[in-house]
Amino acid sequence: MISNSSNYWENYRIGITGAKGALGKALIKKLRSQGAYLIGITHSEILSASKSNDGPQEWVSWKCGEESSLENTLAKLDILILNHGINPQGNQTSNDLNRALEINALSNWRLIESFQSIPEKYSSMGKSQREIWINTSEAEIQPALSPGYELSKRLIGQLVSLKWSNLSVEQKKYLKIRKLILGPFHSELNPVGLMTAEWVAGQIINQARLGFNLIIVTPNPLTYFLMPITELSRMVYSKLLQPKKTKN
Asked: For the segment 200-240, what is each residue's pLDDT rounded down to a tens digit?
């Protein structure tokens, strides 16, 4: 087992959206304990800077639709973890669906595009490759008893797969994309989750350290079988649709 007491993430500047949620707090605590500098990105009001060693060293406030306000923050990061989201549960009004799509999918997509658009050779600590981790959830491929949540997670999941498949060889030198496929863990969004946020955060970090780009943490064994197949099929489909280059 990889020791959590090491300084593997030392000198990394890591930003996390949804930083005040259960998983955000757990990731911040574990990554900070391993030497990272954490920036908590939140929709919530920031009353005061956190003095706790378990919290981020820095807070940034933002709102969906105002992703451009985070441009300076994103430019400082080696790793951006997109973890914010809502779960409308069984509510299926147009307003509930619109909010789920905006927060869970479209705001994530705009942040991905913004992070990638930052000059590719830039790195706050001189590292050659920057990373973005996107929490799309197990709901990307399986029911979650929440239609709005499922639709929004499937949308961002497929958008990330498309981005994954279309990065050029040159772009991959400067940008690594990791997708987080998580099963039900205990949080405000899911009070009956089977796993603890702390355990899930530890598994995410360990798999990232092992070099996994598709990070799966769930008690459901089917997900470990279905998700890689889903990603492979999407990649093949995307490659088949790409226009063939003509020789001059």
From this structure: 999 999 999 999 999 999 999 999 999 999 999 999 998 88
At the fourth CATH level, the homologous superfamily of domain 13-241 is: NAD(P)-binding Rossmann-like Domain (3.40.50.720)
Domain ranges in the chain are 13-241
Q: Is the pLDDT of residue 124 over 60?
A: no
Pairwise pLDDT comparison (117 vs 214), residue with the higher score: 214
Q: What is the pLDDT of residue 91?
A: 82
Q: What gap in Å lies between CA 236 and CA 84, rounded to an integer?
A: 29
DSSP code per residue over 110-174: HHHHHHHHS-TT--TTS-S-EEEEEE--GGGTS--S-HHHHHHHHHHHHHHHHHHHH--HHHHHH
- Region of residue 89 (phi > 0: left; psi between -120 and 50: alpha; otherwise: beta): left
Distance of CA 110 to the CA centre of its chain: 13
| Positions marked catalytic | 149
